[in-house]
Automatic annotation (TrEMBL):
<dbReference type="GO" id="GO:0006281">
    <property type="term" value="P:DNA repair"/>
</dbReference>
<keyword id="KW-0413">Isomerase</keyword>
<keyword id="KW-0238">DNA-binding</keyword>
<dbReference type="InterPro" id="IPR014001">
    <property type="entry name" value="Helicase_ATP-bd"/>
</dbReference>
<keyword id="KW-0067">ATP-binding</keyword>
<comment type="similarity">
    <text>Belongs to the helicase family. RecG subfamily.</text>
</comment>
<dbReference type="InterPro" id="IPR012340">
    <property type="entry name" value="NA-bd_OB-fold"/>
</dbReference>
<feature type="domain" description="Helicase C-terminal">
    <location>
        <begin position="485"/>
        <end position="631"/>
    </location>
</feature>
<feature type="domain" description="Helicase ATP-binding">
    <location>
        <begin position="288"/>
        <end position="452"/>
    </location>
</feature>
<dbReference type="Pfam" id="PF00271">
    <property type="entry name" value="Helicase_C"/>
</dbReference>
<comment type="function">
    <text>Plays a critical role in recombination and DNA repair. Helps process Holliday junction intermediates to mature products by catalyzing branch migration. Has replication fork regression activity, unwinds stalled or blocked replication forks to make a HJ that can be resolved. Has a DNA unwinding activity characteristic of a DNA helicase with 3'-5' polarity.</text>
</comment>
<dbReference type="Pfam" id="PF00270">
    <property type="entry name" value="DEAD"/>
</dbReference>
<keyword id="KW-0378">Hydrolase</keyword>
<dbReference type="InterPro" id="IPR033454">
    <property type="entry name" value="RecG_wedge"/>
</dbReference>
<keyword id="KW-0347">Helicase</keyword>
<dbReference type="Pfam" id="PF17191">
    <property type="entry name" value="RecG_wedge"/>
</dbReference>
<dbReference type="GO" id="GO:0016887">
    <property type="term" value="F:ATP hydrolysis activity"/>
</dbReference>
Length: 696
């Protein structure tokens, strides 16, 4: 087994580190099984059925109803290849009650032989009404003798891939079950307390349900065997993340004791007082920074809760101790906004902030890079340009990552690797997408979490309005009246994921339409294809009040702060996710004027679209919206698992199995402490060398 250094940038094991051929499984089959995440015989035990089919009874052909999957048995009366409307195999099967047509659009000569007239077969599939009578398309076939016994239990149906049939999987799984070691690593008292079966009993019950097993409990995954598997999956996830947490605490970081000089000077110069929530979170972070091991804290707070000030005070704690701090943001607009805000706050303290982005002139950039390398500049803000090779931050002690879920694993790790001399910088990750408790407890169990659960005083509530796209002219008139009254407005164009070019075209068309409809107003346009300096110039003009309306794609989703903007129009709101809608809505309501967000939707609305718009209309609390988002989208989409490296739970559901999370956490702590060998066995069983994926 290849060992993987914890948190290494090269975290994933080599592709062949786990996959080795074994008896009955050659290289070709192994490559196909790898697509199902089966790399070792023991992985087959946890390749559990998707569903079960009832082959324990036969249905007379005449009693088979369209729309239902049934099993029939009869004699093949005809078997022919027909060429119209396309080449297909057409078979008639009869029993004493009637005749059924079976149809295969893709077939092999062996199937034709198996279905020769006179043969007795069992067919399993969904019955449909066809042109010539009831039929089954691509049913499962089994050749039988008359009077052959039926199975006595439900038949498992497994997730599969091209070249690996159900029969092959069943044979491999039965072989793995026969050679399974029956020792259970979970303490017997814990199993008794939770009322769960042993591992061996659970996997046997799921692969081979007993004749009297409750089909509904198996289907709904509430059967005790399913609960054991789901509990163990949550337990392993907790163990792995807690091990990462403990290992991080064993590493070295620069301790940054609280000196308070620069932080107090900044607070003295601000025209407002921090909220109680900000003060509490600043104290939590300050205590972490003073420790000799790396902080890894997630700061989550709703739109406008004041995360930037908290980050600024943390960065000043590093500077107060003579060390560097850097902030990385996912977009040029957001990074530049952070740089401007920090520069404004730091200038009276005599501190300069380096600005690193791909769009800066080469000479300016190189001059700042040299000053950072020499340690003359202690503060830096940038996009992913911060993590490029030429950027040397020899005294980096704190790395702040804003909207951390929008960076990939490699990017977050690369910033962490900037620390020198074997020391890791402290990491503060920020997110304006609030994370529900169940998700934080599972996917983020290796982080400390701070929450800003209070908005600064003076923020006016934002009213949300839902408007059908048939009333677009009324919305344009509303924009006209707001801007003539001295306010500003955003008009956000629809999200078109299939085509960036189409999205750009829509933005340009909307810009032209609004300019023609609102000749007395100044309308600007910003989108992802503009050069950084053009984008920046348009945003500055809007911030300065030189533009009345800003037509934009979702580049303005985070970080843009224009107090006079009190109207937000979002076109085709049904295409956006809840988190995006909440983020976009948070761009208004930053001044004292009453703010409105108008969501234009197109009919007909899908069920999911209707549900999303109802949630955003009824709620302004980001955490409530996040809980609804988790319910609608599921955890994988919510945490951005596709690019973040977070593995999805295969069997446990954060909604349905929330009651298992606390016991899993408690048992993980106990087993890590008291049963290291059993812990290692469990991690190997489920992760098999992939544990590092959980740790970035």
């Amino acid at each position: 087994m290849q060992t993987v250094e914890l948190d290494s940038v090269h975290a994933e094991p080599a592709p062949d580190s786990r996959a080795r051929a074994w008896p009955g499984v050659g290289a070709q089959l192994l490559a196909r099984l790898a697509k199902l995440d089966i790399h070792r015989p023991e992985d087959l035990l946890l390749h559990l059925p998707l569903r079960y089919e009832d082959e324990t009874r036969l249905t007379p052909i005449a009693a088979a109803r369209p729309g239902f999957s049934v099993q029939v048995e009869g004699e093949v009366s005809t078997c022919e290849i027909v060429l119209r409307p396309r080449r297909q195999l057409l078979v008639r099967v009869s029993d004493s009650s009637g005749t059924l047509i079976a149809r295969w659009l893709n077939f092999y000569p062996s199937q034709q032989k198996q279905l020769a007239p006179g043969r007795r077969v069992r067919l399993f599939g969904e019955v449909r009404g066809g042109f010539f009578g009831d039929e089954m398309i691509h049913p499962r076939i089994k050749s039988v003798e008359e009077g052959e016994a039926l199975p006595t239990a439900l038949t498992p149906v497994y997730p599969t891939t091209a070249g690996v049939g159900q029969l092959t999987l069943r044979k491999l799984i039965d072989r793995a079950l026969a050679s399974m070691q029956v020792d259970d690593p979970l303490p017997p008292d814990a199993l008794r307390e939770l009322g769960l079966p042993g591992f061996g009993d659970a996997v046997r019950a799921l692969h081979h349900p007993a004749a009297d097993a409750d089909p509904a409990a198996l289907e709904l995954r509430t059967h005790p065997a399913w609960l054991r598997i789901k509990f163990e999956e949550l337990l392993v996830q907790q163990m792995s993340l807690r091990r990462a947490y403990n290992a991080r605490r064993a590493r070295q970081a620069v301790p940054l004791p609280v000196r308070g000089r620069l932080g107090a000077a900044l607070l003295d110069k601000l025209p407002f007082q921090p909220t109680a929530a900000q003060s509490r979170v600043v104290a939590e972070i300050a205590a972490d920074l003073a420790a000799p091991y790396p902080m890894q804290r997630l700061l989550q707070g709703d739109v406008g809760s004041g995360k930037t000030l908290v980050a600024a005070l943390a960065m000043l704690q590093a500077v107060d101790n003579g060390w560097q701090a850097a902030m990385m943001a996912p977009t040029e607009i957001l990074a530049e906004q952070h740089w401007r805000k920090l520069s404004e706050w730091m200038a009276p303290l005599g501190l300069e902030v380096a600005w690193l982005s791909g769009s800066r002139r080469k000479r300016e950039r190189e001059a700042e890079l040299e000053r950072l390398r020499r340690g003359e500049l202690l503060l830096a803000v940038g996009t992913h340009a911060l993590i490029e090779d030429p950027v040397a931050l020899p005294r980096l002690a704190l790395a702040v990552v804003d909207e951390q879920h929008r960076f990939g694993v490699r990017q977050r790790l690369a910033l962490r690797e900037k620390g020198e001399g074997g020391r890791r910088p402290h990491m503060l990750m920020m997110s304006a997408t609030p994370i529900p408790r169940t998700l934080a407890m599972t996917h983020y169990a290796d982080l400390d979490v701070s929450v800003l659960d209070e908005l600064p005083p003076g923020r006016t509530p934002i009213r949300t309005r839902l408007v059908s796209d048939t009333r677009r002219d009324e919305v344009i008139e509303r924009v006209r009246q707001a801007c003539l009254g001295g306010r500003q407005a955003y008009w956000v164009c629809p999200l078109i994921e299939e085509s960036e070019a189409l999205q750009l075209q829509t933005a340009v068309e909307t810009f032209d339409t609004l300019r023609a409809a609102l000749p007395e107003l100044k309308v600007g346009l910003v989108h992802g294809r503009l050069k950084a300096d053009e984008k920046s110039a348009t945003m500055k003009a809007f911030s300065a009040g030189e533009l009345d309306v800003l037509v934009a794609t979702t580049v303005i989703e985070v970080g843009v702060d224009v107090p006079k903007a009190s109207l937000m129009v979002i076109e085709h709101a049904e295409r956006f996710g809840l988190a995006q809608l909440h983020q976009l809505r948070g761009r208004v309501g930053r001044g004292s004027a009453e703010s409105v967000c108008i969501l234009i939707y197109a009919q007909p609305l899908s069920q999911t679209g209707r549900e999303r718009l109802k949630v955003i209309y009824e709620n302004t609390d980001g955490f409530e919206i996040a809980r609804a988002d988790l319910r609608i989208r599921g955890p994988g989409e919510f945490v951005g698992a596709r690019q973040s490296g977070l593995p999805l739970l295969r069997y446990a559901s954060l909604e349905e199995d929330a009651a298992l999370i606390d016991p899993a956490r408690a048992l993980a702590e106990r087993m890590l402490r008291e049963l290291p060998a059993a812990t290692e066995g469990l991690l190997q069983r489920w992760l098999g060398g992939r544990e590092a994926l959980l740790r970035a």
